[in-house]
Fold:
Amino acid sequence: MKVLVSDNLGEDGIRMFQEAAGIDVDVKTGLEPDALKEIIASYDALVIRSATKVTKDLLQAASKLKVVGRAGIGLDNVDIPEATQRGIVVMNTPTGNVITTAEHAIAMMLSLTRNIPTGTASLRQGRWEKKKLQGREIFNKTLGVIGFGKIGAIVADRARGLRMNVIIHDPFVTPEQIQKAGFESVDLDGLYERADYITVHVPKLKNTIGMLNKAAFEKMKPGVMIVNCARGGIVDESDLYEALESGRVAGAALDVFETEPPGKSPLVEHERVICTPHLGASTREAQTNVAVAVARQIIDFLTEGTVVNAVNMPSVTGEVLEKIGPYLTLADRMGCLQAQLVRGPIKEVVIEFCGDFKGIDLSPVSTAVLKGILTPVVKDDVNFVNAHVMAQQRGITVTETSSAESDYYVNQITVRAISTEMESVVSGTIFGKKDPRIVKIDKFRLEMIPEGHMALIQNIDKPGSIGEIGTTLGQHQINIGRMQVGQEEEGDRNIVFLTTDTPIPEDVVEKMRQLSLVKTVTPLEF
Ligand SMILES: NC(=O)c1ccc[n+]([C@@H]2O[C@H](COP(=O)([O-])OP(=O)(O)OC[C@H]3O[C@@H](n4cnc5c(N)ncnc54)[C@H](O)[C@@H]3O)[C@@H](O)[C@H]2O)c1
Ligand SMILES: O=C(O)CC[C@@H](O)C(=O)O
Structure:
């Protein structure tokens, strides 16, 4: 078996590959995409960090490749759908660098509030600026932590040790879980109003890009300090620059950037901004942890077939996978749909299998539902191995039931998601041999293909209602690829599913919400 390590990997990991029986390892870092494409066909495994781009083009040339392993968390640089399509397992190491990154966020906050980098630079230029560089104590100040996942929870804990008042905003973790950890759960506006320091620890998702923007800065306490050691783009860089200039934001500490490296930007050069070049995970300890973890996972996979921390596959044989594959896709999409339909943190998930599932192992299918529910919230952190544990840690109870009866279809999966605010029920089945379809949402029957950019619209079933939706989208040059209409079993409402060629921008969604016969509009992404 041949392993290619194409990004810098901790020595301990490389040594493990060298010492593993039956494995040959080549370390070739910094290759241009074409050079990598030329050699990839002879490798069974590829080990990366963030520099190598595992594109569709590269995967097409990777005829022997069985596994891609990321030493670290982020998989933004891997075309996961294409890898899945080709049966290539994609793994990451979701826990090895979380302490290190949390410590970096704390270090950045302290350095910022005490002007340490500026003081160093000023001394190097022969100045002694005690008055100008006076700082602020963090004792008794309020730290707002956005995102109470692995890193956010450690940051909160360390800040408590520094005697800060820590408040948390995470709409996907129940307030009880946050209180159980000893912190106060608040809504986002409450956090903006009260926090002296704000640190973000959310994944980069459609709804977290630009989360800290002009509107958010305007709600914050004047003089707030911002820390971003999560992902570039979660804090809008040009809005941050303006907020620094206006004085609303007193300082910012950035480890990550919209474009990396950011080059010479006015933000990076701003005197009240301190920066590091994506060093959050860069400690000897974390790099050893992730290198050892990825090496162990890949060696075990190549020699024993064991799958650990795969984001795109459960631990089953190829033969079983062929049978359950369509159900895994269906379950994942149903979970993903529920995550987008449900308001408030989900407390309970009930998965019902009805009808004939002969020869199908249903436990990975349930896991796929949970993975689908959690992916829009935690992105690459959830996989087939940890989905159940992660659900449990978030206070989500999971129940499975099965019965031989199914009303409309040979078999049907129903997922009930119950949050603090509502209950949503979605049913799905497989059409033909492998085509997932959502066949019921609450009281509406339909046949929806869950893929691409979509919108779910509830409207009054009257002539003209669908026309006004089409006209609004047409006015904004948004092409409708597919439209499905579902009728309420009893009542006067319709449910309309649109698939569009491009995502529907927020302002157009707002316009659709204003239409006279439209009740609700929910944009969806699969
Ligand atoms: N700087 C670095 O080198 C470095 C290293 C590791 C991780 N990271 C980044 O740090 C971030 C956090 O990583 P993690 O391992 O703690 O992730 P995690 O998945 O464990 O936690 C993310 C948390 O964010 C919450 N969340 C999702 N959407 C939210 C929203 N709109 N508002 C508030 N909370 C929301 C989720 O519920 C979850 O609890 C990620 O962006 C990750 O990529 C950066
Ligand atoms: O490999 C790195 O240094 C980036 C680490 C981090 O952003 C991750 O996603 O794990």
